[in-house]
Amino acid sequence: MAKKTIRDIDVSGKKVLVRVDFNVPLDESGGVADDTRIRASLPTLRYLLDHGASLIVMSHLGRPKGKVMDSMRLTPVAARLKELLGTEVRKTETVIGDEVDRACADLKPGDVLLLENLRFEPGEEKNDPGLAGALAGLADVYVNDAFGAAHRAHASVTGVAERLPAVAGLLMEEEVRVLQGLLTAPERPFVGVLGGSKISDKLRVIGRFQELVDTLLIGGGMCFTIFKSQGMEIGKSLCEDELLQEVGEVMSRSAGKRAEILLPTDLVVASDFKEDADSRIVDAGAIPAGWMGLDIGPRTISDYGKAIAKARTIFWNGPMGVFEWDRFAAGTHAVAEAIAASSAIRVAGGGDTIAAIERYGLADSFTHISTGGGASMELLEGKTLPGVEVLQDAEA
Q1: Residue 396 — very low, low, confident or very high, per pLDDT cuts 50/70/90?
Q2: Which residues participate in catalysis according to the annotation?
Q3: Structural domain harbouring 50
Q4: What is the pTM of this model?
């Protein structure tokens, strides 16, 4: 990437403010249910500690909307980070203030301090200059390793970076390198696989992929808005009616583009949105009135598997159906297995996609699993990520 990283600076004896993405799910007992994102930060944190820095680590968790919520405190995250790092991790009860100032003043090389949930502060998402200045005043250097938040112009992402020497962490570097590689020099054939419930989340990516990929496979609830825009009967299936015209226009532009777009030809439909609802397999254009599509069908699974098998590069974002329910998980499971079995470069991103990969035990079979769903989508759309743009440029 064309930005400086932690390898380009001297951190010995310095206090380093590290923005990470510890927005992890918590279990019913309040512990960390999935520590994937914490583990992803470890190479950067260990590098900084090994090179003599003291660390002030900061992250958000959930959406407390500027209010202090005990259920979203980072206490269980601090406990898990301590276990993974194998060193003491102190945690503050606030984001800024006297307690934080004292704790940071006492830091020595090798110490790790975790600030409380950034989004307890109303100024975080507003990129408040006062909050950004207070955070910047805690350290000598800023490192952004939170790719999952790189598309947000928040105080801890861009505000602090404008006030301190700012470089990328190792995870940020890897994420940008891999995803930019998909845009600039993918091995072909390049197959894109897009699913998920809302086409509003993927419409711009579909437009970009029409020019970028060789084959685009579409599944999940988002396909029903496409079907309806083409005059097909979708029963009670999920549909974003307000986007019908725009979706129709985007799909009509596919003629003459690089990508061959494949839509489901058969579906698993259900009489209601329930795990135990009556279900059957129907052709895509023959969904009964009052029924809804909840997964791609076996013929589509076969067609998509054949396309995936020919790929040299694959990017996957979004499940093919309601994979949380076993009866409607066959499509997502089959696609995941097909990608994992491929010899192509295999890149995946998005929370539900990662959850499916983890559920089927396939994480080790992917070349790269992106920690940032929204950020990865925006980068692939061709947008500039503010959290990357603000970092110091690498020397030519």
Answers
A1: low
A2: 37, 198, 351, 374
A3: 6-171
A4: 0.90
